Fold each of these.
Amino acid sequence: MSSTEQAANSGPAGSSGQVVADYWAAAEARDWTAFGALLAEDVVYEAPQTRERVSGREAYLRFNSEGFPGDWHLAVERIVGQDRAAVSMIQFSEGEVTQPGLCFFDLDEDGSIVRITDFWPDPYEAPAGRAYLAGRY
Amino acid sequence: MSSTEQAANSGPAGSSGQVVADYWAAAEARDWTAFGALLAEDVVYEAPQTRERVSGREAYLRFNSEGFPGDWHLAVERIVGQDRAAVSMIQFSEGEVTQPGLCFFDLDEDGSIVRITDFWPDPYEAPAGRAYLAGRY
């Protein structure tokens, strides 16, 4: 990465967010070369809900390219970036099923993604005890 | 809110994050006066997993003060803020049970919280088909 690009990544708000926008665009395109170019060699992926962990760029590329077969698509709903952190909310869809995905990213000082913490919240029943306090949509 | 405070909230990165830090500190303290002072009159809360929606400051104060009884505590793990948006990751605990909570916030031009999108991701079984691609922790 050039020093100009490094400066951009440590610069104004939004640059870590741009890296994350590029990450999702590469995933949607199954462009694993572009995807891998955004990752640090020592990237660590964790999914706290399943306690899955993947360490290193090569392993994480394989996790993505082999671990999610199927004709899925994703749409980025929002990205919030600050300094070397960013968070994304996406909608991941396959056929009729759409699910939100929430992902926290940390970038290293070169602007490469070095840590990913990934959440896939499923629907659940609203607690009956607070039903009188909230509407439904 | 004074114009000085308004300027701070539209200023450098971190000011929307400070509002969210104050929000969680007030919740942990059950200081509903301080909590309410951070909210816009027309705040809307949504929980996409349950499709609960609460509209307006008074209703949202009641939702929090009445809807979550018990001796819970929360710890903020991280906050990422950009412009008038911020995202928090907290750990919510009650007794031995701890659960992550992820919350997206939008602030209005006065720096008051006007929209909250709240997720509580539960553990789930890792898909067997990708077990060879990830370790566990």
Amino acid sequence: MALDPKLRDDIIAAVDKSFDAQIKFTQDMVRHVSTRGNEHTMQDFMFRAMQSRGYTMERFEMDREALARHPGSGAWDDLHSHAPVVVGIHRPREEKGRSLILQGHVDVVPEGPVNMWATPPYEPVIDGDWMQGRGAGDMKAGCASNIFALDALKSLGLQPAATVYLQSVVEEESTGDGALMTHLRGYRAQAALVSEPSAETLTRANIGVIWFQLEVRGVPVHVQRMGTGANAIDAAYRVIGELRELEKDWNQKKGDSEYFRNIEKPVNLNIGKIAGGDWASSVPSWCKVDCRISILPGTNVEVAKREIVDRVAAFTRGDAFLSNIPPTITFNGFQAEGFVLKPGSDAEAVLGRAHESVFGKRLETVTSLAYLDSRVYVLFDDIPALNYGAISRGVHGFDEGVNLPSLKKVTTAAALFIAEWCGVEKIAD
Amino acid sequence: MALDPKLRDDIIAAVDKSFDAQIKFTQDMVRHVSTRGNEHTMQDFMFRAMQSRGYTMERFEMDREALARHPGSGAWDDLHSHAPVVVGIHRPREEKGRSLILQGHVDVVPEGPVNMWATPPYEPVIDGDWMQGRGAGDMKAGCASNIFALDALKSLGLQPAATVYLQSVVEEESTGDGALMTHLRGYRAQAALVSEPSAETLTRANIGVIWFQLEVRGVPVHVQRMGTGANAIDAAYRVIGELRELEKDWNQKKGDSEYFRNIEKPVNLNIGKIAGGDWASSVPSWCKVDCRISILPGTNVEVAKREIVDRVAAFTRGDAFLSNIPPTITFNGFQAEGFVLKPGSDAEAVLGRAHESVFGKRLETVTSLAYLDSRVYVLFDDIPALNYGAISRGVHGFDEGVNLPSLKKVTTAAALFIAEWCGVEKIAD
């Protein structure tokens, strides 16, 4: 049932009216250097922002043991964040509509070499249609959008006529444990809206992601006695060559996946970080390589991990240098399966109507090749999780930004979606 | 003129008698963690050791400007040591013999991962015939040997009948600027003995060494949008592939070098250290690779550097990713030519006799593929520089050690060499 046209227009106007405040809020978020493990003040900011709006607040630690028991958790190592998960709870006067999770993550990836940015990464700069800064796109603009979509209703004297959980999580860029923790804590709703910067599209299907670290050790010698290949860095690159073969093999299975078969190369192995050796004139004795590989939906994580380990082991046995000290593979982050958002849900239909009201055209669905927290709600809550947000640029790169006109539109669409999905009721005097 | 047999036997006995003290002195040296830039206390120890023995002491800073004007200096960067050079000067009562430089370096290469050592790297452990520890072989045992060879004469009431400079330098493992600084300071003698661990052989010819850092930059993107090869780490490895071709080309010229043509692969490119990227799920935007390549004697350093730069530039132009942001090559350490020790010098003959007295066999000459400070004395002082020292193991690697019976023998040979080369005189009452 479509929204009343008057209410629709009121919501559109309300989002527009508070958009300057939404921009300022987003800028305040970007100023927090909330890289992995450093999200404490950012989460306190989110806690206060929701508390001041009257939400019932819960803040909880990640439960390492509970996570470890769940097959969807990441590998917990020394780099794992200890920042809490923050949830603002809205309970209606009367539970008439459908409940909803509004989710966003506040952790950001490292900014990289600062001199490759046109402006300081944690100083949000607005230039024309863009706000630039690390996390502006991925996904602080989305976190703010969740809050301001509800604010728009409130400014009209309205609130959702169903329970809404405003979830602010961490660890989205490394394990997905923040989102999983909300599931383990017992939060459940009939749909979820995750406001990742999806470029005004709905994510239909999403790749799974596995992280691992390859470590090669070797007995070094003075460079004067170096033999061909007896070098941990060179040896690591030989292993990488074999992993590229595995990547090829996995891509050849794309035909089995409806939403991936038309993508040229859905499975990507990223050699994200490397460190090795101590001295230019010493043959390096060690090399560590941080890798990220994706798996097609339906691929079991444990099976994929076993395949990685077996391939490396088989390659190692045939390599004169590596066979002496076989490299180790440590799974150290995401161990996450992909998902497909089943077409035809009511939630998708409601978002589609909201989107059309704002954009005047159909909501397109796309396949994503990046990890998304939505997987938790699709795979483990078995609910429609709608990954939907603004146009961004430079995500995980330099001069990251969010497109502000796009942000206003998707915030409006989110507010319309909430109003129709949850229904609205008057705020009690 | 061979030494008097009585004197020879006395010297052999004297070195033997003080060898326990020599071992202890070497152990004390190994306990100093004198990696690059951290040689201050080590040099103070050497200063005090020579001063207490009555040498006239000089200690001087490295003169950056003077070094920069000299073609044999290394590239001075932030990692360059500021530790002083220490020289102990012996002047005879009567200048009758031939003057001599006794040289050693106290800097050591990094120990690497400590857990790959059987014993703590800076705790000198004696096990059977070996003393183990970083720098025990390369070349603290040699530094101590220089001092104890003179001590042996002194214990007989004798001293060299010529000026002897006991030089303790730094930067041998990175630029060779310490040795060059002694030259720039004006120290000159008729021969030099450098007690590197040459396994009881004399170094006839020595490779030149150039250090450089390759840096690749690129515009990173989220791994979901990675294209083939648009990855700074992968791109760096493609450049390394091209540098391996250059290495091959340079090795093909080995026929021109009398002392290198029978070595299978005299020119070695070492990929010594690598660092790149910030995050497993971000396509890396940067990669730095520390390289060391050798050049055959007679190859001009500037010509070789130009060839490296040109080869990388040409390769870059043909690479879709690299051509956008060409990598940089920074020369950041050794810029040192190789040398050939001319056969037939008196100094070599004297060392040959000393060696035969101790070992009962001819002194063998070998070609070295590692940088040696001796190049300063051969190339710029135009004197015979004898690179001669003990048997070692694990140099630039793990469980580095010096063979103690070998050390005693080469110390004895050094003492005999000094006695014959400089002549001896009675110490004044």
